[in-house]
From TrEMBL:
GO-annotated molecular function: glycosyltransferase activity
Annotated CDD domains: CESA_like
Lineage of the organism: Bacteria, Bacillati, Bacillota, Bacilli, Bacillales
Protein keywords: Glycosyltransferase, Membrane, Transferase, Transmembrane, Transmembrane helix
Protein name per UniProt: Glycosyltransferase
Membrane-crossing segments per the record: 6-28, 279-300, 306-333, 345-367
Xref: Pfam families: Glycos_transf_2
InterPro entries per the UniProt record, alphabetical: Glyco_trans_2-like (IPR001173), Nucleotide-diphossugar_trans (IPR029044)
Organism: Marinicrinis sediminis
Length: 383
């Protein structure tokens, strides 16, 4: 009997979760960036300079395509500044070749990281000191912009007086490790964060950001202290977004899937290490919150598949039917979210596997933090 009540309670929560996700998706439709009237600088009477700032460490496989996408922007009044953050691969040679082909491209050699600074944060800080633009677009090297991306971000920023525009690019996933874990980031956001409050509330708790695309008004960036104010942060995007709100400015979590795409990781090892360094910190280093997430997700998305399989062996059909309905409900929630990233629907059927992997990464992230060994990323260790 207790199992039946537990499964019915799970169904009730999943039904509420579905309603919340549908509401968030409806809100998100209104967060698409507007289109300028013309596909060039001509729509703007006084086109401001926009600095596109790209930190690059060991990005030989990405940097050329990233810069070429920026070069092809319809909005032309931009400067492109790339900082080679002491790369150990062919990144410097590729940048030198690209510099000869593009007059707007500046290439900086990153200085050694001072004590107390995170690598990417210090790279972005150096880039900001060289930027001359009225707007700053911090872009990851694995990001690929559509031709109208910069113009649309600028139009939204000026029309709506937004201090920071960020959002989740379309995630390109090709291996099963990527498909099972990477889309879970957007799944978690849409399942738990009321998107309307990201911009509609001044409370910094209601915030989300993606470091791959951060479009600031320069005055706002300077007012919050820039990257220098979060020197040691390993979740710099979230910390910057919180500071924007704390400074009294607005944050727009935009739908970027039509203007930006990226492939963050290419292997299981990269997926594991990339999420391991962030997950515990995304919960503010709070062990209770991380444990609550792991237990809650396991209850909602793992318990029912286990009961369903056990019922096949034991013949407890009532529990099995309720569990099967819960499984289908969970898959449906995941599928309507994955559709935004053109993830095949079949991947949603492996939601329990995704949850197990995410919980395993979360536990690993917690153990790394508590052991004092720190996190390793791109050849650097952070404590």
């Amino acid at each position: 009997m207790w199992l039946t009540f537990l499964l019915l309670g799970t169904m009730l929560v999943l039904g509420m979760q579905l309603a919340f996700v549908l509401w968030n998706l409806f809100v998100f439709r209104g967060h698409r960036l507007p289109h300028p009237r013309m596909h060039s600088d001509e729509w703007h009477t006084d086109p401001p300079l926009i600095s596109v700032l790209i930190p690059a460490r060991n990005e030989a496989r990405n940097i050329a395509a990233c810069i070429q996408a920026v070069q092809h922007q319809h909005y032309r009044n931009i400067e492109i500044i790339v900082l080679d953050d002491q790369s150990e691969d062919q990144t410097p040679a590729i940048l030198e070749q690209l510099k000869r082909e593009e007059s707007r491209l500046q290439v900086l050699s990153g200085r050694p990281r001072p004590r107390g600074w995170a690598g990417k944060v210090y790279a972005c800080h150096q880039l900001s000191k060289q930027a001359r633009g009225r707007y700053l677009l911090f872009l990851d090297a694995d990001a690929r912009l559509e031709n109208d991306a910069v113009a649309r971000a600028l139009l939204a920023a000026e029309q709506q007086q937004i201090g920071l525009i960020t959002g989740f690019p379309k995630q390109v996933t090709r291996t099963w490790a990527e498909r099972l874990v990477v889309p879970f980031m957007m799944f978690s956001i849409l399942c738990h964060l009321p998107l309307k409050l990201v911009r509609g509330s001044s409370d910094p708790k209601f915030v989300a950001a993606h470091g791959g695309f951060m479009f600031f008004h320069r005055d706002v960036y300077d007012h919050i202290g820039g990257h220098e104010a979060i020197a040691s942060s390993l979740v710099d995007d979230m910390d910057l977004a919180r500071r924007v709100k704390q400074g009294g400015h607005s944050v727009l979590l935009a739908d970027l899937t039509s203007i930006c795409s990226m492939r963050m990781y290419t292997s299981f090892h990269e997926v594991w290490m990339g999420y391991q360094k962030n997950m515990y910190l995304l919960f503010g280093g709070n062990s209770f919150l991380l444990a609550a997430m792991m237990i809650g997700y396991s209850w909602l998305y793992v318990l029912s598949p286990v009961v369903m399989l056990c019922s096949l062996a034991t013949g407890h059909w009532q529990a099995g039917i309720l569990a099967a309905l819960n499984v289908l409900l969970g898959i449906f929630i995941k599928a309507i979210i994955d559709r935004r990233n053109s993830i095949p629907w079949i991947v949603s059927c492996f939601l329990p596997v995704s949850v197990v992997l995410v919980c395993a990464i979360g536990l690993s992230s917690w153990l790394k933090a508590k052991s004092g060994k720190g996190y390793t990323w791109k050849g650097r260790v952070y404590h």
